[in-house]
Amino acid sequence: MDDVLQNIMDHAVAVAREAGQVVREALCDEKQRDVMTKSSTVDLVTQTDQRVEHLIIQSVKKKFPTHRFIGEESVAAGEACVLTDDPTWIIDPIDGTTNFVHSFPFVAVSIGFSVDKKIQFGVVYSCLEDKMFTARRGKGAFCNGEPLQVSDQEDVRRSIIATEFGSNRETETVEKIFSSLRNILNIPVHGVRGAGTAAVNMCLVASGCVEAYYEVGVHVWDVAAGSVIVEEAGGVLMDVEGGPVDLMSRRIVAANNGTVAHRIVKEIDAFSPTRDDAPPTQ
Ligand code: IPD
Ligand code: CA
User: Fold this and answer.
1) Domains, the chain, ranges and CATH?
2) pLDDT of residue 34
3) What atom of ligand 1 comes closest to residue 198's alpha carbon?
4) Model pTM greater than 0.85?
5) What is the CA(196)–ligand 1 centre distance, in A?
């Protein structure tokens, strides 16, 4: 089983690198960045997102024909977002699509692999930085082959916290996002940052550059790969109200340790977006 999983992970790394190359080339071609919208006028997608997801899925299907997929753009096109016990690739072809559209330099290909509903490995390729983040459960986390370790900071007042504003502009949601942000700034923390991609934010936690990342509104494909990268770098995952994390719930805290995670949770004005695995409304 060890060799089988390694073989699958090697393929994930290879296809993420190939996908990253396509994304880099597309950045130089305005047509490849033409914007379409999904759930709102600020939830963006381009033909490159769709092309890259297709490339990854076709490549995996050739080698592993029985595996299942949850891909951001396939779900947007109407496929079910249901995690079973079967081997499943959870794919965000471009995490940071808004960054991609604007050439803001953090864009990642994110691939998580799940068996028995547990993420077995994660690959995040931050393709403009050429950083390949990888982690396999029980085997550590790495960036370009170098081991990763979270920060050992216990004091949230000496921390940088990462978060995002997401793409929901409903007044109540924006109020809650700002209420959490105000609370956290007022702790006070050293700073608040956001790379514009959930996957990269989680890799920043794993790398020890920021102590924690939280967001309400993410999707399973944004955080599946990053979740195992954070845990294997020594970090913890939590729900924004303090319980165990549920990757379908669209709520996440990823932190260097439990002390910082619990402190952040106290300040988050939590809410519950529609789950990723909710049955479609008629
Ligand atoms: C988004 C990014 C963003 C986060 C959103 C995600 P996308 O993913 O990760 O940082 O705030 O919640 O949906 O749309 O660029 O793949
Ligand atoms: Ca995406």
Assistant:
1) 2-147 (3.30.540.10), 156-265 (3.40.190.80)
2) 87
3) 9
4) yes
5) 7
